[in-house]
Amino acid sequence: MVEKRQPIPVAEAVHRVMDYAFQAKKEHVSLTQAHGRFIAQAIRADHDVPAFDRSPYDGYAIRSVDSQEASSQHPVRFQVVGEIGAGYVYEDVVGDYQAVRIMTGAPIPQGCDAVVMLELTQTFEENHQKYMSIKRPFEAGTNISYKGEDVQQGAVLIEQGQYINPGVMALLATFGYEQVPVYRKTVIGVLATGSELLEPGEALQPGKIRNSNAYMIMAQIERAGAEVKYFGKLSDDLTLCIENVEKALQEVDILITTGGVSVGDYDYLPAIYEAIDAKVLFNKIAMRPGSVTTVAARNDKLLFGLSGNPSACYVGFELFVRPIIRSAYGHTQPHLRREPAILGADFTKPNPFTRFVRARIEYEKGKLVTVPSGFDKSSAVSSLATANAFIVLPGGSRGYEKGMQVDVLLLEDLQGSEWPWDNIEKSYR
Ligand SMILES: Nc1nc2c(c(=O)[nH]1)N[C@H]1C(S)=C(S)[C@@H](COP(=O)(O)OP(=O)(O)OC[C@H]3O[C@@H](n4cnc5c(N)ncnc54)[C@H](O)[C@@H]3O)O[C@H]1N2
Ligand code: MOO
User: Fold this and answer.
1) How far apart are CA 315 and CA 323, in angstroms?
2) pLDDT tens digit sequence for 297-314
3) Same domain for 226 and 215?
4) The domain containing residue 248 runs over which residues?
5) Same-domain pairing of 189 and 307
6) For residue 247, is it within any domain?
7) Which residue puts its alpha carbon closest to atom 17 of ligand 1?
8) Which residues does the UniProt record annotate as the domain MoaB/Mog (predicted)?
9) Which atom of ligand 2 is nearest to the CA of 315?
10) Does 418 score more than 70 pLDDT?
11) Mean pLDDT of 176-204
12) Quick check: 151 pLDDT over 80?
């Protein structure tokens, strides 16, 4: 008689995993390697940005007081006493009715308090001296980008744990971080089990399938911000599996296996956990897909036994592995973001267990609408590629109808996904 497993609620399973949450160590990487990492320390501005008053335009820096009488009938003329490009400093003090030709980004010369755009000036020469005239007055402060208008010294610009995106890269460079403090990437091992598995380069044979889960999981690991160590696939041989799991565990922070967690004759994970003295945290969750997701711990290392079924495996990763990765990088909200959405199609399947339906979310008339992204069995692989969310259908419900409000959990591949565009003109008006 096979032991009957008692399913635990999804939230309970998440808590049991998160009891093992840890903080990643810190390391420094060069700025060019920092994109996509998580910053390990809050970044505070050690100077103002801009660091000096500067010109936002090409034109002439003047003393605004000199321009007050200017009109089209009586233009005011200024002696052009110098020229200053971005990156240089005009050393002299500018006097009455003097102007300095200034380029965008150059510091405002001493004595000046306004910049007149080039297009609003006329230039001429008299006795080898350059002059510039204007036909209207300019107030003090016209066209000056003030020191500190963007960032004030002392401000916290990047919180600890923030993802380093291109904008964060710009800030790090602005403040001179040639080396960036980041969290060391959690190293996660991946091992696929099953005698039916072929690697992608192998020709299909009767009864065999290609190992898709390993490649999916490795991408999920990288998307979540951790580092992959791939240990390949193993056939259903208990001794071989025990040896390889033990060996892999030495080399990683966390080990993920796929397959072999159910109750079949060759579902060896329970025996492997026993053999390596790992404590099983749970082996049945009241959810679909992924009910067989099993998590064990040996000392402080977690072993995730994800289902062999691709959709179950995918969901198991996002719900249980992702938050462990993110919390290691200081995230207090490491779980998938939840949003309300309108169900765009009937979903009549009864749900004794909480169901995580692979889905697409789209905007329709300003509302977030969600529909299943395809074939919904836990063995499905086709519906994963287009999914950008999970619809959460609580356990006990008898099915849902189009128009009802549901919760969706947002996946993070939005950058690569195609969002609906009406047309270029409408989007950029
Ligand atoms: N008598 C019962 N049978 C099953 C139960 C149950 O409770 N009682 N649970 C079912 C559920 S639910 C699931 S989910 C699966 C889980 O099975 P395992 O996680 O043990 O995985 P396997 O049996 O090894 O494989 C399941 C399925 O997935 C394919 N597979 C395996 N590895 C990969 C891979 N790397 N890439 C792609 N596909 C993979 C495998 O060939 C099987 O078709 O058990 C149910 N059975
Ligand atoms: O674990 Mo299975 O995926 O519930 O369907």
Assistant:
1) 12
2) 999 999 999 999 999 999
3) yes
4) 10-24+185-328
5) yes
6) yes
7) 262
8) 189-327
9) 3
10) no
11) 97
12) yes
Amino acid letter, 44: R
Domain edge (last residue) among 284, 305, 328: 328
Same-domain check for residues 257 and 241? yes
Ligand 1 cavity residues, CB under 6 Å: 192, 194, 196-197, 209, 211-214, 258-264, 267, 289, 291-292, 307-310, 312, 378-379
Q: What is the mean pLDDT of residues 319-327?
A: 97
Residue 2 has pLDDT above 70, yes or no: no
Here the tokens at position 42 are 């809050």
Ligand nearest to the CA of 353: 2
pLDDT score of 374 more than 70 = yes
CB 68 within 8 Å of CB 78: no
- Residue whose C-alpha is closest to residue 344's, from 362, 324, 319: 362
Identify whether residues 177 and 190 lie together within a single domain.
Answer: no
The whole-angstrom separation of Cα 322 and Cα 411 is 11
Looking at this protein, which amino acid is placed at residue 280?
Answer: V
Taking CA atoms only, the protein residue closest to ligand 1 atom 5 is 262
Ligand 1 geometric centre to CA of 274 (Å): 20
Task: At 35, give phi and psi (nearest 5°).
Answer: -60, 130
Out of 292, 294, 375, 393, mutate this one to test ligand 2's pocket (max ligand atoms within 8 Å of CB): namely 292
Rounded average pLDDT over 60-80? 98
Residues 421, 385: contact at Cβ < 8 Å? no
pLDDT at 129: 96
Q: Are residues 232 and 314 in the same domain?
A: yes
58 vs 413, more confident: 58
Q: Are residues 373 and 287 in the same domain?
A: no
* Predicted confidence (pLDDT) per residue in 89-122, tens digit: 999 999 999 999 999 999 999 999 999 999 999 9
The strand pairing partners of 49, in sequence order, are 151
Output the CA 404–ligand 1 centroid distance in Å: 32
Residues 359 and 316 both lie in one domain: no
Q: Is the CB of 307 under 6 A from ligand 2?
A: yes
Q: How many domains does the chain have?
A: 4
Residue 211 shares a structural domain with residue 271: yes
Question: Does residue 253 form part of some domain?
Answer: yes
Residue 213 in any domain: the answer is yes
Cα 290 to averaged position of ligand 2 atoms, centre (Å): 4
Asked if 392 contacts 354 with a C-beta cutoff of 8 angstroms, the reply is yes
CATH classification of the domain holding 311: 3.40.980.10
